[in-house]
Write a structure and sequence with these properties.
Helix 12 links the parallel strand 8 and strand 9. The protein is 41% helix and 20% strand.
């Protein structure tokens, strides 16, 4: 009998955007962006986040306030309106585009008599969907447990059930005991497992240092096209998606530079505004690839009308990671979506226009990477190796460029361009 895979049902959700009437610190520094425009752009991003979590956006409620209500965020009168809208749209889930305190979340849930999520919980749910490796799953679980711990009061019955729906994936699907001591024990255990992952990654980095290659890391706002660019430069075949946070687990590949030398390129998790500090800490093992890089490639979706504000968020997170002073190259991606007259200038020498999807501008980008990455000069050498010396031959391929090779009896003659340090080592051993 033929069977079909079940189609995941999409939960209907109501989105709530809460903005301040006065200009915020973020909008004040961005020319041409008013506070109301900023809140509208935030809501568009929230819609995309909700769809990435598998939701069907049934309706939207916006409130502009002079100040946020400390108890309910929006005030009791607005909560009555939100409840009515949720019932009218048959939306059992209400998502707020703010990070709610535990007290606010309890008060809002009581008033709405339904499930309430905030921005952090929504992002964590998307992370839980997209985590594929053991490392990614552990990092998501740690972030979710840390988020859950201060919110246990009054929710014990709900958290002890098997979860279902947006905001309940990951550890919420397990029968978690609501006792704080047990959750703290689990947090400690997850941290230990993540530390083991970090140690394994450190061993890998140490091994890479034995074959020292300069490294660059792609960073940028979520959905800026980092993975598409990574694939275009390295032919790695990493998953690309229009959904937010499609990449959670870091990938490192070698790339050939115009000078003939090789470099390592890493693809990292996308950034987003209001990313909670706890989430950044949970993904420390992933972000260490960026922290180890000699060059940061800041990828911007230049076709987004909100890219100045997105760039500001990326720079803010880079500063939090201690990378503000790291050499950086600004990569303006998706240039094919704009007419030439609307493209930003590149006069500072640290900006490159590309289209990762079309493959345009990649040669210039590689040349800029080559020029900005530290490294040794290449020298040409001819070496004679025993056929069984595969280790040295592998080093020649890994750190340089083999121009030709010829087998003569039991030996191999190799003509190659290699870094000066490797050439000196080969001469000393020969």
């Amino acid at each position: 009998m033929k069977t079909t895979r079940p189609v995941e049902s999409r939960e209907r959700v109501l989105l709530v955007g809460v903005g301040l009437k006065r200009a915020t610190k973020r909008t004040a520094g961005i020319p041409g962006i008013a506070a109301s425009d900023y809140e509208r752009e935030r809501l568009e991003e929230l819609e995309e986040l909700a769809r990435s979590a598998g939701a069907d956006v049934a309706g939207v409620v916006i409130q502009m306030r002079d100040q946020l209500d400390p108890a309910t965020l929006v005030g009791h009168g607005k909560l009555d309106e939100i409840r009515a809208e949720a019932l009218a749209h048959r939306a059992p889930v209400v998502i707020f585009d703010r990070n709610l305190t535990p007290g606010q979340q309890r008060n809002i849930e009581k008033a709405l008599d339904g499930r309430v999520l905030d921005r952090t919980q929504l992002i964590l749910d998307i992370f839980a969907r997209h985590a594929r490796t053991r490392e990614g799953m552990l990092q998501v679980e740690l972030a979710q447990l840390n988020y859950m711990l201060p919110r246990l009061s009054g929710r014990g019955v709900e958290l002890s059930r098997l979860g279902g729906g947006i905001g309940t994936r990951g550890p919420g699907e397990q029968k978690l005991e609501t006792d704080r001591r047990r959750i703290r024990t689990r947090i400690a255990r997850v941290r230990q497992e993540i530390e083991l992952v970090r140690r394994r990654r450190q061993v890998q980095r140490t091994a890479r240092r034995d074959v020292p290659l300069p490294s660059a890391a792609l960073v940028g706002y979520t959905n800026a096209g980092k993975s598409t660019l990574f694939n275009a430069l390295t032919h790695a075949g990493v998953l690309t998606s229009q959904r937010m946070f499609a990449t959670l687990d870091p990938t490192v590949r070698a790339v050939q530079l115009p000078s003939g030398r090789r470099a390592l390129l890493s693809d990292t998790v996308g950034f987003i505004r209001d990313l909670p500090p706890g989430l950044i800490a949970a993904f420390r093992a992933t972000l260490e690839e960026a922290q180890e890089a000699a060059l940061i490639l800041h990828v911007t979706d230049v076709s987004s009308p909100h890219h100045p504000e997105q760039d500001a968020e990326v720079l803010k997170i880079l500063d939090e990671l201690g990378l503000a002073d790291r050499p950086r190259l600004h990569v303006l991606n998706k240039c094919d979506k704009l007419p030439p007259e609307m493209l930003p200038g590149t006069g500072n020498g640290h900006t490159v226009r590309v289209s990762a999807l079309r493959g345009t501008g990649l040669e210039e980008l590689l040349a800029r990477i080559d020029a900005r990455l530290p490294g040794e000069g290449l020298v040409r050498i001819q070496v004679e190796l025993p056929l069984e010396d595969g280790r040295t031959l592998a080093r020649l391929h890994a750190r340089g460029r083999v121009l030709s090779s010829e087998v003569r009896g039991a030996r191999m003659w190799v003509d190659a361009e290699v870094p000066e340090s490797l050439a000196g080592q080969l001469r000393a051993s020969g």
